[in-house]
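Practice problem 4.
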């Protein structure tokens, strides 16, 4: 088990990232260790209190860790179930579960007070309705990634082809899965696959097409396939020779995995959402490898190796197909052409899908877009701005900067630059329209850049109405 966890290089990558994943995994392992301790000594309090506090803290650090809470409660119920055979045991088990509820309440209470005081929301979780937004986005896209320079666009969206020509109800996005059951099943299946498919490797990708992508993807899915095989072999050994401790552990781990899948299956999936599953599959992969080596029958060994190889190759092919759904990844080396983006999706990259002006391109900073200049173009027209919800209805952007430059033989030439702060400056709200002559001699390309102002929060900006008027008139 320890070797499997130590070999999980995906989890180790997050140690250096300023995100909640590394801390969440640490608390998950504390809770898992506490549960094993509790399983051995059900009447001892320290393991129960430490594990409950770790789970509650994990939920406060990252609300999506809510699956840990349900798994912990069920896991405690599994451990305390034998106590229910006597009246005294019922009292003891009830008292232990009340202690779990008390620890949860003590950890949740400060955030509950803050939400009531500042947002009038009676919840210890996020005050805004992020769940519906995530579910809406999860229908529009199969996956999401983040990149940093030298990649020229910050947000990597993988379009969902099964959502095309369908509509999503804003207040009840999950209804889409019932209205389109076939498409819904395929979308959920791909979300679950994408949780384990670490195609960009790093949370903040600096290269969208690294030389090692194919061998890495094969290794990625070989481990996943071997982990699934190990999980199956573990359950098979328990069924053949049932022992209470192993059965309880396997049941608890299965509930943990299913709970994580249930939380993320309908959301806009990111690679980091699959860390819990990978933390389970890596040790299972080590277990499977040891079992295959120890087996005497060559036919079973061959079947295990064949399954792993088939899963790895199938994972590579499916990962490649999912990547082909992203316009960012279809272009070489992350180059992003503005006209190609508008043609590819009909209405640009609509994010949030119901808020962009028709035909606009979402460009959360830092983003760099390029557009080839037609041979007969002499004028350039474009518009840009913030989406209204970036500075109203709870949005509080601190501003962003827009820059347009021309790529000439002598290097970049600045054409237009302006910073907008719509939250503080009403004049910066709405769509800013610009029309100007192009430099002479005519540049080969025009570059559109958005840059972070004082911070990236709520920087929902767009480019729109990009054209070469003289070209159109001719």
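Answer key:
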């Amino acid at each position: 088990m320890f070797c499997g966890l130590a070999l999980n290089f995906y989890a180790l990558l997050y140690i250096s990232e300023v995100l909640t994943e590394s801390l969440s995994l640490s608390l998950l392992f504390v809770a898992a260790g506490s549960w094993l301790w509790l399983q051995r000594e059900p009447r001892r309090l320290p393991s129960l209190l430490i594990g409950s506090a770790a789970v509650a803290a994990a939920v406060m650090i990252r609300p999506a860790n809510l699956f840990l809470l349900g798994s912990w409660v069920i896991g405690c119920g599994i451990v305390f179930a034998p106590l229910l055979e006597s009246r005294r045991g019922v009292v003891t088990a009830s008292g232990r579960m009340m202690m779990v509820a008390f620890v949860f309440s003590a950890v949740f209470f400060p955030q509950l007070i803050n939400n009531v005081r500042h947002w009038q929301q009676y919840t210890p979780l996020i005050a805004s309705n992020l769940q519906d937004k995530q579910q809406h986005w999860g229908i529009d896209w199969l996956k999401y990634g983040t990149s940093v320079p030298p990649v020229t666009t910050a947000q990597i969206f993988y379009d969902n082809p099964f959502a095309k020509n369908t509509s999503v109800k804003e207040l009840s996005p999950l209804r889409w899965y019932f209205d389109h059951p076939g498409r819904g099943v395929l979308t959920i299946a791909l979300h679950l696959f994408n949780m384990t498919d670490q195609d960009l490797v790093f949370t903040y990708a600096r290269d969208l097409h690294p030389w090692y992508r194919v061998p890495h993807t094969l290794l990625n899915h070989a481990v996943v396939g071997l982990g699934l095989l190990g999980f199956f072999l573990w359950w098979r050994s328990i069924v053949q020779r049932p022992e209470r401790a192993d059965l309880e552990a396997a049941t608890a781990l299965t509930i943990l995995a299913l709970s994580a899948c249930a939380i993320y299956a309908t959301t806009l999936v990111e690679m980091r959402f699959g860390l819990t599953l990978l933390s389970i599959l890596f040790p299972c992969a080590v277990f499977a490898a040891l079992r295959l080596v120890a087996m005497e029958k060559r036919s079973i060994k061959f079947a295990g190796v064949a399954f792993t190889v088939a899963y790895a190759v199938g994972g590579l092919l499916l990962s490649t197909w999912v990547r082909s759904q992203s316009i960012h990844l279809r272009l070489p080396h992350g180059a992003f052409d503005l006209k190609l983006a508008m043609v590819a999706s009909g209405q640009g990259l609509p994010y949030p899908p119901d808020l962009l002006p028709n035909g606009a391109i979402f460009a959360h900073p830092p983003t760099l877009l390029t557009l080839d200049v037609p041979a007969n173009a002499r004028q350039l027209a474009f518009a840009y701005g913030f989406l209204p919800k970036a500075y109203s209805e709870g949005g509080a952007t601190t501003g962003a900067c827009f820059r347009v430059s021309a790529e000439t033989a002598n290097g970049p030439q600045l054409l237009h630059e302006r910073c907008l702060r719509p939250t503080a400056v009403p004049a910066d709200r709405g769509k800013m329209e610009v029309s100007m002559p192009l430099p002479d001699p005519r540049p080969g390309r025009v570059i559109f850049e958005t840059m972070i102002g004082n911070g990236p929060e709520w920087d929902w900006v767009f480019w729109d109405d990009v054209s070469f008027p003289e070209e159109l008139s001719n």
